[in-house]
Amino acid sequence: MKPLNHLEYYRLPWNYADNGISWLEPTTDCNLRCEGCYRDPRGPSHKTLDEVKADLEVFKKLRKSDCMSIAGGDPLVYPQIVDLVKIIKEMGWKPIVNTNGLALDETLLRDLKKAGVYGFTIHIDTSQKRPKVTAETENQLNDLRLHYAQMLAKVGGIACSFNATISDKTIDEIPGMVSWAQQHADIVHTMVFILFRSPEISGDFDFFVEGEIIAIEDTYKDTDWGGSHTLMAADAVAKIRQADPQYEPCAYLNGTADPSSLKWLLANRVVLNRDILGYFSPKFMELIQTVTHLLSGTYLAYADPKSIARGKMAAFFGGLVDRKMRSIFFKLLGHTIRNPGSILKPAYIQSLMIIQPVNFETDGRQDMCDCCPDITVHDGKLVWSCRLEELNKYGAFVQTVPKK
Predict the structure, then answer these.
(1) 401 forms bridges with which residues in the sheet?
(2) How far apart are CA 77 and CA 85, in angstroms?
């Protein structure tokens, strides 16, 4: 396998104050319980709409963003979710709903679209105990993923992404998920693989809050499903390349402790007639982010289905400025010559994302996602959403110290 080298990829220009995404949590309530979830379902439940508006004002004051991820908990159990989507749209963000999809039906979907919803990121994996779902493997869950993708496509004009938390017990199923996504590139726009984390499998550490040693609660110890191995981005890349040997990342976010770590690793492939023509180059991704920021004032995070269907245009214009994109264009020409009927068919841009959450350096430093896109609001301040429970439980972030 070709080794991963962060210096060969485009470092996304997102930063603390100017980012592609921000993260809003109107509720901690959820209708499922996923292994490895870092949100305590016994939390304060729903915020009032005024409290959520106050959080949005903090974002507006402190941070530029293209998209606002509405999360939780599950935001579809929030009683005023339609009103909230409308508010977010009116304040200038693309509303993205992060949900397990359990409460989603076509009626609610149409109401959300009317309110201005831009996209959905639907979390589906084997850690969930879904009612009436008998699937036991990730690939058996592809039918459920397809159900939601077809629902979004039927209503139309909504970006469709899927999240799955991956443990060392499910990592071997990544190739099947990647191949499945390739077959449905017209309606499945993004696949995100989130690598499972638990302090119990991260090293031999003591945990402190403001100088006092604490015991990590059982909430953080879901190792029966998660396994005993800390997965890294390279582990997921190796599995993706089993299904798609052409796979090549174009952009990344590094860690706060290790600049070479690949915390967010992005690849965009062009798919025509279910055939992969190639992957975006780092230079082309840089061009996209730079031009988007010049024209809109924000960095791009999610694209609409019309833009995603413009893979041919991307190959042509990208080929004017970059050799790697030119190779995609020539493959497109060759494909069209061999299959003349495809000249009128769109080529789709499909994203594959790997997220490598916090891991601990041997000296106890916590390697977070530098310039995290999932920053949220807590007491009027911007904080990491994945560590919000530390503030809720202890009033401060947990520090890790190697055991002597």
Answers:
(1) 206
(2) 13
Q: What is the pLDDT of residues 339-374, one digit of tens each?
A: 888 888 999 999 999 999 998 898 999 999 999 999
- Interatomic CA distance for residues 330 and 273, integer angstroms: 16
Instruction: Give the CA dihedral 340, 345, 347, 350, nearest 10 degrees.
Output: -140
Cα–Cα distances in angstroms (integers) from residue 371 to residues 9, 236, 246, in the given order: 16, 22, 29
> What is the Cα–Cα distance from 263 to 253, expressed in whole angstroms?
5
Work out the angle between the directed axes of helices 311-321 and 323-338 (0-180°, nearest 10): 140
Q: How many CA atoms lie within 13 A of 254 on its CB side?
A: 15
- Length in residues, the chain: 404
Which among 120, 130, 124 has a CA at the least distance from the CA of 159?
Answer: 120
Bridge pairing between strands 348-355 and 264-272: antiparallel
Angle at 394 between CA 231 and CA 80, to 5 degrees: 80
Q: Are 213 and 399 in contact (CB under 8 A)?
A: no
The SS3 call for residue 156 is: coil
Structure tokens that stand for 232 in this block: 């890294």
Interval 161-212: pLDDT, tens? 999 999 999 999 999 999 999 999 999 999 999 999 876 666 788 899 999 9
Which of 178, 348, 331, 176 shows the shortest CA–CA distance to 273? 348
The answer to whether residues 133 and 144 touch, using CB atoms and an 8 Å cutoff, is yes
279 bridge partner residues: 269
